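Preliminary data (for renewal application), coenzyme A complex.
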Amino acid sequence: MTTLKIRKAARADAADAWRIRREAILHQCSRHYPRADLESWTSGDLSAEFSRIVAEHFHVAVVDGQIVGTGLIDLDTGKVDAIFVSPSFMGRGIGRAMMLHLESLALGAGLRRLHLEATLNAAPFYRAIGFQGDDITIYHSPKGTKLPCVPMEKAL
Ligand SMILES: CC(C)(COP(=O)(O)OP(=O)(O)OC[C@H]1O[C@@H](n2cnc3c(N)ncnc32)[C@H](O)[C@@H]1OP(=O)(O)O)[C@@H](O)C(=O)NCCC(=O)NCCS
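Predicted structure:
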């Protein structure tokens, strides 16, 4: 793979972030969740609220000028979210690189612990990069979809 760069997102990246979120979820979560739930979770048009969150909080992974992954960390709480990689770029270390980037931001902000809610398909990925957690709870999406997920945490 050519050079991978991770940078703070801009509002202009919101459409790519929205598309990658949907593509990543539909590609990789389908063995673990009913298709109807995934459609409900990812449906809809890009909203002004999502664009605002991207501009304020997202980071993007860029390969050859193309956005191929996203990630978000709340530096007040240590919550990680929106870790999504384009299907054709999965398995090349981009998710790991994004998490390392977010971890360095967290350490710089004085955080000592990260936490997240992993989709069932992604829990092995998070375990491979040092997160712990095995319990299954129910995540309530903003649109009301109920999705089993795994609360996980990592000490920095
Ligand atoms: C989960 C996801 C973010 C992983 O990103 P990625 O770039 O494909 O992962 P990486 O290539 O950086 O993998 C890092 C490590 O995790 C492992 N890993 C990645 N996905 C895995 C999986 N589904 N099952 C088991 N191990 C996995 C890799 O083997 C690698 O381990 P290694 O370095 O010891 O070989 C990505 O596949 C994705 O976007 N999935 C769909 C959306 C999703 O579920 N996001 C998480 C929401 S909580």
